[in-house]
Amino acid sequence: MAIRMRRPVTLAAAVATAAALGAGTLTLALPASAAGDGPAPTLSLVDGTLEWGVKQSFRSYLAQPFAKGRTTLEGGATQAAGNGPFTFVDGTGAYDTGSHGTATSFKGGVRFEAHDGALDIRISDVRLRTAGSASPTGEITADVVTKEKDGSLTTRDDIAFAALDMTGVRPGQGAGGAMVFKDIPATLTKDGAAAFAGFYQAGAALDAATLTVKAAPRPTPTTPTTGPTSPEPTATSPEPTATSPEPTATGPQPTATGPQPTATSPEPTATGPTGPTTPTTPTTPATPTSTAPTSPTETPAEIVAGRLTWGVLGRWRTYVGELCGGTVTPAAGAARTGSAYAFQVAGADLDAAARTLTASFTGRVDFTCAAHGIDWRIGGVKISASGTTGTLTADVTTASGTTRGVVFAELDLTKADWTAKDGVVTLAALPAKLTAAGAAGFAAPGRDAVYKPGQALDPVTVSLAVEAGATLPETGGAAGGSGSGGGTGSGTAGGTVGGGTAGGGTVGGFGAGTAGGSGALAATGSSAPTGLLAGAAALVAGAGAAVVVAARRRTGAEG
Fold first, then answer.
1. Is 534:393 a contact under the CB 8 Å cutoff?
2. Which phi and psi angles does 454 have, rounded to 5°?
3. What separation in angstroms does the CA of 116 have from each of 66, 69, 432, 551?
4. Helix or strand run (H / E) with residue 240
5. Does residue 349 lie in a domain region?
6. Alpha-carbon gap, residue 372 to 367, rounded angstroms
7. DSSP label at 516?
8. pLDDT tens for residues 271-330?
């Protein structure tokens, strides 16, 4: 049976709203479905922010003239005036009503650089978890890329960077009913100390963190809209109900049956013969009961969750992330999964029986190589499929600017399995080929595209959960975590250093000349002359690795 999905995905099926604040505890108004037996529901949290400066003394150190330091914000993060704390934004997560634990992930990152590139630490994919009633503890986790003393980059994905002490922390109330957990004490963990390049020891006090979240709004109920339609049949059923009381009314109303024909005297003989037929009208109440079950089936079902997994193009990742010494970084909600990237569904319309699908996904992937002036981004991914064919469209940013809705790839669904298994429809490993419009996105200004139309791209996998409680399949790959990197499975290749905006640089592209600001070569840790870089670039291009554009004419790296 076809399962149609037309509504945008909502984060919550049952959510809580901040109702009252008293005696130092926050009361949540749970939906009626949360009562009774069974496992405690998980409620969605939205519009979250995390205000956290990492460590104030470290920020002050970077601001000293001798350090030649700079702090770069990425992915929507902001910083308070006067070298103040950072705010990580667009937090989403969940609150477990049974354990009272929370888990919230945020967008945004921060990069610290100093001493002519010798110090380089980048923090992204920040998340905050609390244990709830089991323990007054929590943690801040993050992906951290650190430049080691030998100049190599070490990527640590999803490490527990800071330990939180929730003792004595009480929620306050913020704007719009937000819950505010202010000034949560934080200390550096062992893994955090390692990621901090040994500047501080485990147990060192970090800046206190302030968490702000809101409960997701209740979804607009669809059943009440169908419910009022059922009284309409009862409104049409007064005729049967008028006849059905007739047996009961015949007891007290034997004499009333005499006037009754006079009441129906406009058609006295007609009512007589139709009297036997009126018992057939009680079949009309049967039609309301028969239509009532059909209305829910006509109401589109909801996609509970979904994900698109895609590595874009392995050769492109390898070149930018490894050979060029650049970075390949998931952003705006996308996450690294092995050698590919996971984009979360934003909305979908699925008819598995008709083999049709339209879906949109959040997140993007940034390909940057300051040494060769590359700042290339892809996001806004959408899928459209019908039968055995489909297309992947995306927003592509190059030196020429951002082009939205590019028909980037053609998809082959000849072998796609549209059957739901364990509540999930998975269109696995769909072959993808580059279109002419997609190839144009790989061309430097005034040059031919390096990849030609028809070039095989990485396969695309789409998984959509169509039943509550269904679990999306694990995504494969050679590297785990949700961090970044550019390799084909090493998990650390390229790291995430240099998100393309360091030093105030703008979104550029091939030869844009603004990626990385004044420290274009610092991201690679290299001070090699331009000639050597250009020679290496030409060698790579000759090997057919990927796009190489003339290196910026600089003689060295500046801090």
1. no
2. 95, -10
3. 11, 8, 43, 19
4. helix 238-243
5. yes
6. 12
7. T
8. 444 444 444 444 444 444 443 333 333 334 467 789 999 999 999 998 888 887 889 999
Domain check: are 194 and 335 in the same one?
Answer: no
Task: Show the tokens assigned to 447.
Answer: 């040059």
Per the domain annotation, does 489 fall within a domain? yes
Q: What is the pLDDT of residues 8-20, one digit of tens each?
A: 333 333 333 332 2
Beta bridge partners of 369: 374
pLDDT, residue 308, reads: 96
Check: CB of residue 143 under 8 Å from CB of residue 111: no
Residue located via tokens 């901040």: 18
Nearest to 442 by CA among 456, 457, 452, 454: 452
**Counting Cβ atoms within 10 Å, is residue 300 exposed (0-12), middle (13-18) or buried (19+)?**
middle
Domain that holds residue 83: 41-215
Co-location of 62 and 172 in the same domain: yes
> What pLDDT does residue 381 have?
97
Instruction: Please indicate, yes or no, if residue 293 is contained in any of the structural domains.
Output: no
Task: Yes or no: say if 508 and 375 are a contact pair by the CB < 8 Å rule.
Answer: yes
This prediction's pTM: 0.39
Residues 53, 63 contacting (CB under 8 angstroms): no
CB atoms within 10 A of CB 410: 18
Question: How many residues are recorded in the chain?
Answer: 559
The residue type found at 94 is A
> How many structural domains is the chain composed of?
2
pLDDT: which is higher, 193 or 527: 193
Asked, for residue 376, whether it belongs to a domain, the answer is: yes
What is the per-residue pLDDT across 338-373, written as a single tens digit (0 to 9) for each?
A: 999 999 999 999 999 999 999 999 999 999 988 777
Tokens (6 digits) for 374: 């590359």
531-542 pLDDT tens trace: 323 333 332 333
Find out whether 378 and 385 touch, Cβ atoms under 8 Å.
Answer: no
